[in-house]
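From the pipeline queue, job 12 of 40. The input is one protein chain; the requested action is below.

Action: predict structure.
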Amino acid sequence: MILDEPFNGLDKRGVEEVRGMLRGLKADGVTILLASHNPEDIRLLCDSVHEMDAGLISPMAALKMP
């Protein structure tokens, strides 16, 4: 599944519902490619994080919750 900024335009409840749906899909083994500028989304949902800069994709250390 490929998602580009899936939380834009959602209210707080909508964000929580979509996050829950994505966690369920992840638990079922679905691979999800998530593009987001929101570090909180990345910390909560991603196992592997990559960054694109100047057309180059490079791995980043996973963002951890403080």
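Job complete. Residues 2-60 form a domain with the Rossmann fold fold (CATH 3.40.50.300).
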